[in-house]
Structures are given as C-alpha cells and as structure tokens.
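>> received
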Amino acid sequence: MTDTIASNTPSDRALSIMLWIVATGFFMQTLDSTIVNTALPPWRTVSAKRRCACGAW
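>> returned
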C-alpha cells in the first residue's frame, strides 16, 4: 500500500518545475495588471480627444 502511494508522488524536479511555472504565472499576471492600470488613463484621454476632434471617422 505504501509503495503505491510513494510511486504516485511527484519527484523533487517535477515539484520545482511546477513551482517555477506557478511563480512565473503570478509574476506575469501582476506585471500585466500593472501595465494595463498604468496605461488606461492616458488611453482614455487620447481616445476622448480623438472622438471630439475628429467627429466621425
């Protein structure tokens, strides 16, 4: 019974790879939300100016 449980556990290398994948995912999510939140206000002002200045496209 213990042999079956022990053979189903991931190796140290697999755990390390999974940890790096999860950490990279969290980093990318944080970086993406930071960039988008920083860029949204300028995008709003630029798009508002274009709508007012150009009228109809």
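>> The two ends are 72 Å apart (CA to CA).
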